[in-house]
Each structure stands twice: as structure tokens, then as C-alpha cells.
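Standup notes
- HV: blocked on the assembly model, inputs below
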Amino acid sequence: MKENIKILGFLCQWCAYQGADLAGTSRLIYPAEVKLIKVPCSGRVSAHIIFKAFQKGADGVFVAGCHIGDCHFKCGNIIAEKRIKVIKAILDSLGIEPIRLDFFFISASEGLKFKKVAEEFYAQIKKMGSLNLNHGR
Amino acid sequence: MEDKVKEKIKEIIINKEVDGFLVLKRYFNYVVPYLFTEKNLEDLEELSLEEVKYPLARIILKIKKFYPDKKFGILVRGCDEKHLIELNKYKKINLKELYLLGINCSKNLALKCECPSPYTKIANISFGERVEGKNFEVFHKDLSFWLEKFSRCIKCYGCRSICPLCFCNNCSLEEELLVKRGFLPVDYPIFHLVRAYHLAGRCIECGLCEETCPAEIPLRKLYKEINEKFYQIFGYKPGEDIEEKHPLEFLEEEVKEKYGI
């Protein structure tokens, strides 16, 4: 049986989403399993949202925001980066591989970087296989 | 020790150092929190120093809400003191307005609680012999273990309600959009992990939540492990230093210092 990997990306609307947009308009190909969601700021992605994504069947989740200093709201990306570090620690204590979650800095002009990040992240998750958090529900 | 404590409480109430003193009192076969003031000093005979855990910090918060200008005294053990240190950091209570009467726990209690520091550090005065505690070993289990434990949850909110450090006015676990009301089983593991996230670097591992939990979920062990990882990442331990700040909160100054934005 072929395993279907699902990856969810939360991209900030000012930088990372524009970067993904650029990757699209420049016809760069990235794995179709990577689904993207636009958020107002990477700092908006709370712990609840990330855990919900995992529970609803995502095998990997990443959050991408502006480079430090570029955040539209001053320090949203700094908050997000720290938060992801803590959530990774929580996943690790539960016995879930912490590399299933990651944070990237992608600016609006880095279409190529977005493609690279998406491909690498996809390869990493594919190696680990799917995550079953549903516990038979 | 009990007589000394009673004497001291009587002394500071009569000297008007404090307006009221919060301690545990015997009530039939139970132990209940009780506020001693000038008016009911004769009840002091029933004061109890029994070795039970009680979230006194949570009660003093409530009392302080009704009488913000009065000065109170409170009986603290090592864990109560850590609660108050953390609450002071979040500006929920002012340590300078409190009189802390410390009690060092006995060896038995320290072993029972698996407490690494069963003594008081910043109390105004402390009674009892200081014993060294022990650190209990790290508890690492796999995912299926935790999912099985979480699936027993009956969503009583007991862990949230008893925790002195869960002081938010609006709890995100009561938000209709995030946690569905009147629906069991709860959305595990989200429910437990969100609380774990909010307590990362804030939980002082007193174990009240684990004691309260009717489903016997080993919450304290989970928080303990997360806190240890938190320490490895940020080098911050809650309940130790009064001045030190939580790395995820109070960002403004740090951002200005580090990045100049």
C-alpha cells in the first residue's frame, strides 16, 4: 500500500506566502503533498493550531515567517520561532519525532529557497512515514 | 514546632505586621484553609501543620482580590514559595506585601513528593530542620502509552482549576471554537498538550494536578520532562530566581537589546 504523506505549511502573508507565490509564478516545482495555509503572521500560529494539524492527520507541519527584523508586527517571527522550539520539546517528550515540526525564515523574494525547503522537508518526512495520532478514532 | 509557629503567628498579628494570616486548620477530620485575624485569634489552637498539599497560593490570590490594601501572612512550604515566586513574576501578587512563614518539609514528605528542594529559600522566617530532597528519574514513554493515558480524561478541568499558575481570566481550553463543549472524549492529545505548552517553563512540578486527576494521568511526569528539555533549550528554570524572566514572555526588552527593533 502506498503511503500518503500530508504536509501542512503555515506561511505568513507578508513574506513566506509571497515567496511561495513567487515559486509558483516562476514555475518552480515543489512536492504536491505540501499544502499551504496563509496566516496573518507566523506568531499567530498557536500551539493549539499545530497540535490540531497533527491530530487531523498531518504527518509534518512547518511554519515559515519573515527574516528577523522584517516582521510586519516587529517580533511575531521571534515569538513563533521560540514557540516552535518549545512545541518540539513537547513532541519529543511524547515520543513523536521532533523533526516533524520546523520553522523557516523565508522572505518574499526567496522563491527558490521555498522550493528547496519544501523538497527537503518532504524528503525528511517521507523517510519517517506517516504519523498516527488518531489512535483508532 | 507547632507551638513555635502558633506563637509567631500570634505575635505578628498582635504587632500588626499583618492583617490576616492564612494557614491550614483542623476541621473535624479534615484540614481546611483558614484566615486568622485579630478577631479569631483564639481559634489558633486548631492550627494544623499536617503534611498535606494545598494550593494556598491560589487562595491568597482570591483573598487579595477582595482586600487589595491589606497585608497578609501565609504559611509556605517549598512548593508554595515557588508558586508565589512565579505569581510575582507575572505581577499577580506582590511578594513585598506578603509575610512568608516558611516550614521545611520532613524527610518522609520530601521522599513521598519526590521533591528536589523541600525547603524554603526566601521566607521571612522558617521553622523545621532543612533536609535535602532527591531528584526523581526521567520518565520516558512512547506515544501509545500517552495516548492511552490521555484517552481516560473525563474533561473535569481539575488540573486547570487547582493549579495556582493557571491564573488567566480567559482560559483557551474553555474557548468554544477550540474545545467543543459537552463532548466526550475530549480532543486528546490536543487538550493535554495545550496545557502542557502553556505550563512549559512555568510549571514548578508541585504535583497538585496529578493528585487531583480522577483519571490518574501522570501529568506531573510529563511536565517535568518538558521542563527539563525547556532548560536545555533556554537555560531557564521556573521558581528558582525572583528576577529571572520567562524566555517566551516579556519579549519587548529582549528584542530591543538583541536586534535593535
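- HV (later): unblocked. Chain B has a mean pLDDT of 86. The first strand of chain B starts at residue 20 and ends at 27.
- Next: hand off to the docking folks.
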